[in-house]
Design brief:
The chain has one helix at about 25-35; strands spanning about 10-20, 40-55, 60-70, 70-85, 85-95, 105-125, 130-135, 140. With about 140 residues, it is mainly beta. It has a single domain (about 10-140), classed as 60s Ribosomal Protein L30, Chain: A, CATH 3.30.1330. The longest helix has 11 residues, at about 25-35.
Amino acid sequence: MRSRRLADGGARTFVLIFEAGDEVVAGVEGFAAEQAITAASLQGIGAFSDVLLGFFERDSRDYRRIPIDEQVEVLALLGDVALADGRPKLHAHVVVGKRDGSAHGGHLLAAHVWPTLEVVLVDAPDRLQRVHDAASGLALIRP
């Protein structure tokens, strides 16, 4: 495990309220770019009209796409924002619940909101950078 202490004090906290039809990944990354956010954590709840989950396949070094094309509740949305290629990049995982009570989760690749999504984003007054890791094929935070 590696760690790096982020700067104390000066953190900004934002509440992002997404509306029906908004795309989540683009919305978070766009907001982070507008606010010059270079390191942040986030959590959220709400609902999606559709979501594209991903499960990272170790052998192929790519995400297996898991589309869910129905209304779901966002039971937990957790993630972070760090710089990748000089721009804020969201890395988030989500657990969603279907109407029968079953839950599905994975990497958040894309999602459209309906009717709302409430996200709390805490900006750290520091910088995190994602760097390509040859062993895994992923862009990982390097403190």
